[in-house]
Amino acid sequence: MTVLQMLKPHAGLRVLVTGGASGIGLVIARAFVDAGSRVHVCDASKDAIDTLLKVEESAELNAITATLADVSDRAAVDRVFDDVATQLGGLDVLINNAGIAGPTGGIDEMDVGEWEQTVDVNLNAQFYFARRAVPLLKEAREGGSIIALSSVAGRLGYAFRTPYSATKWAVVGLTKSLAIELGPDNIRVNAIQPGIVKGPRIERVISARAQQLGLSYEDMEKDYLAKISLRRMTTPEEVAATALFLCSPGGSGISGQAISVCGNVEVL
């Protein structure tokens, strides 16, 4: 196998992407399909799943299957894995992508329910999926892989976004611990830490932060970009490409790492 060939995942990987019917998750799912993988996604949005499956059907692809599921609901997670067994017959890769932005505000004025929801979706769900995936990944012929989506907020402090930042730091701790635990079973565990990623989600985040600080959206966006060494946002495709590499033979020696794909965000 040449070095160039090592940059592409083996064909036929069985991949589960949480939160995979839209946004970064969908871009990752389609990237794996393009690489010859079989992909199942779950998502909490029925509209997103319906749109995805309609596009798949109209294009006569049928390469992605899906389950409607709230990732913070353990019974729903069990249903996802029932569908994984039916649709994929096993698992080689888990992409723990699902997450929410959480509330924006000072810690003293934050709603406890919003804090708990952020922890449930961003952290507890990653545990629920990992615990169900690991027995399947142990049987993966080429070794299993877990990729957890953290964030640049998982390596930097993030004022007024404490629930989000706290959960994303915790994802890194979970990743590094599982890498040690599962390495002897030939399962690699890594985290990707996207920065400010283009799309509707960051637009909502910037808008909320601007309102919190009493700034215009345009000024807030300029402030975000000024903190990035490359002075631009990251694209979802750059995040997906990193996930593909981590699951390729070229990435087979990488485990226990938190890899920032962010243009070098210097501070939040």
TrEMBL record:
Query: PROSITE patterns in the record, alphabetically?
Result: ADH_SHORT
Database matches in Gene3D superfamilies: NAD(P)-binding Rossmann-like Domain (3.40.50.720)
Pfam families registered for this protein in UniProt: adh_short_C2
Which molecular function term from Gene Ontology is one that the record holds? oxidoreductase activity, acting on the CH-OH group of donors, NAD or NADP as acceptor
What InterPro entries does the record tag this protein with? NAD(P)-bd_dom_sf, Sc_DH/Rdtase_CS, SDR_fam
Its domain of life reads Bacteria
Entry-linked CDD domains: SDR_c
Q: Which family does it belong to?
A: Belongs to the short-chain dehydrogenases/reductases (SDR) family.
**Cited PANTHER family:** SHORT-CHAIN DEHYDROGENASES/REDUCTASES FAMILY MEMBER
Q: What is this protein called?
A: D-beta-hydroxybutyrate dehydrogenase
Give the source species.
Caballeronia sordidicola
Q: What is the lineage of its organism?
A: Bacteria, Pseudomonadati, Pseudomonadota, Betaproteobacteria, Burkholderiales
